[in-house]
Amino acid sequence: MQSRSTISRLPLPKQPLLIHKLTPDPRTPTKTFREVLNTNPSIQRRARLLAPEAHFSFVSPFPAEFPYAIQYEEADAQRAIDAWLAAREPKNPQSPNEQLCKYTRDQPTKAVLLGVTEAVLRDCLPHLDVGDALDVVGTPALVLEPDTATETANGPRDDLIEVLSGQAVLMSEDFSPWALRYSGHQFGTFAGQLGDGRATTILVTAPPNEPDKVYELQLKGSGRTPFSRSADGLAVVRSSIREFLGSEAVHALGIPTTRALALISLPDLAVYRETEERAAILTRVAPSFLRIGSFEALSPPQNVFIFGGGQQPANWEALRILGEWVAGPVLRLPEMQEPGKAWGSALLLEVARRNARMAAGWQAYGYMNGVMNTDNISVLGLTIDYGPYSFMDAFDWYHITNHDDAEARYAYRSQPAAIIYALRALNNALAPLLGAEKEKGAAITAGWAENVDKDKIEEWRKVGLEFKDELERVAQDVMADEYGRLMKKRLALRRSESADEATLVRPLLDLMAKHKLDFHATFRVLTDFQPGMVPSTKSNGTSTVLDTFVERLLAQAPIPSGLDRSQATQDLREWLGIYARRIEREADAWDGDLNSQRTTAGRAANPRFVLRQWVLQEVIAAVEKDVVRGRRIMAKVLHMACNPFEPWGGENVSETEVGKLSAEEREERRFCGFGAKELLGFQCSCSS
Ligand code: AMP
Ligand code: MG
């Protein structure tokens, strides 16, 4: 049995793998961070451009209603604001271990634990003791009341709620929570400094059996940071539920993503969107939350003027430091093992490969991100930032998941192109560094661009941009390979044939699009297909079996009324004929019974449960109406999303036999259905 610690006693990683190698905001250095909290905490809450060399800013979580209700005389503003904030910042140090000290607030807020993900504990944090926090079903006890918070928060579960709700903050001389600085291209336009406006990394830890692997724990919705601009730094319950369930659903499909450890609501904290809502904090987990936009912040595009901010200066030294960090501990590129070896182009290509694999996963599983701005594209190739995302219902090449994406920039079909666009932005940001490395034939060193004139930088930039074609080729190749591999799996095929994409995959998708068949349900039914169902021209086999099978496929039209049954039947029979011959050609690749083996393999690659928009809406409504009941439903949906390939809800039980299922199984069966017509292909908005 592995020894486990409560969250505030988790050890920091042994290796110096903390982000502190990068450059903090000069106005909030770690060593004096607690002084900042006691004297002028407004530094952390005030929207401002960070110094050009800074990669991040130390900041403590601060979930509070915004605008802050501070009363002051104009002449006394600064002092009054700082005094008001200081009174609410974490103090009261307790020393649970020798590494981190837990600071608590005098005026905590009520926090309700809505869910904890067992799979994340298992995969990333096996050494974290959460007490009985996993038993969320119908447990009113998972609430930390303000009056008892500090006295009772000693048990593992209360400790967890306190830290993950931003009520308690873990700090030391060398460690404080932080928010990242980044910029980004939003819908094709450079937007200047963005940064973690509502996310704060509160802890870094390494699983004891894998000390090289680190995980950052990041709160999303935990209050303002220097990057919040005019916004509140908070998140609402509905969007947090979407991210909580969405990231685990994407992970379970084998697509790289940030993970979701826990979801907490703050029922006494109001958040103002279109209407008044309640606040929630999601804890997400990833080895790093750096994005392509992190590089763009240090090397902004040329001649782009930001409204009110003029042209943002580049900082070449900060670019080198970030690059070495990402090439080293984040991506662990082999180039970094050899001192002095150039790493810039290897970094660029590795980010390309990783994001290409991720995008192939999205395409193969009908996941649509909705906001593929470069600040939302991870350098690790993780799906990040679950805003207006969705999974495909009836297949549509042109589906737009984001209601506000009028130009269809991030439509399903455009996702691969949007990834290439983001990779080009990374190429642009790194270009001078790539050129300098190429000229030197070795890694650049400290001060590499000091006393270098503008013309030289431009000369390097030009050389660096010559990587563009290779970058695109690598990204396209990896995307095509990975997509081919995944679609082969979805069709339960063992070997690859070069014509598969053109003769099998694309025609199937076109057929689904033409007849508005459901993407996931069609694939799931196809796992029962057997080539013997297609009567051969030689034999006089009857086609009844095939007719029955085609009927089953036609039942995967979520809106049956619009279906042209005879045309769809003809198209499906034709395609199944091609599929049957393709399967037969590789029959020798399987040992044992071809049909049962293919069904087993197919089911492990095609989800029975898909986190559809209607399911999300139902969970959200349930949680908002009644926390205890809603929490039970959400735990069930999370469990299904984490195990999507199981035959949920008596999959093989016919409709006439449904009565024999338990109430629980009937509910699961319902969650595997298409849901209400209005929510099919539902587009969501950005408000979160
Ligand atoms: P997104 O479109 O969610 O990727 O957000 C774009 C930028 O806006 C990022 O810098 C976010 O941190 C920031 N942002 C989004 N919502 C909020 C909020 N409620 N408060 C502060 N910053 C926010
Ligand atoms: Mg974002």
UniProtKB/TrEMBL annotation:
It holds the Pfam family SelO. The keyword Metal-binding applies. GO terms for cellular component: mitochondrion. Keywords: ATP-binding, Magnesium, Metal-binding, Nucleotide-binding, Nucleotidyltransferase, Transferase. It comes from the Eukaryota. The keyword Lipid biosynthesis does not apply. GO terms for molecular function: AMPylase activity; ATP binding; metal ion binding. Its cofactor is Mg(2+). InterPro entries: SelO. Belongs to the SELO family. This is Selenoprotein O. The lineage of its organism: Eukaryota, Fungi, Dikarya, Basidiomycota, Agaricomycotina.
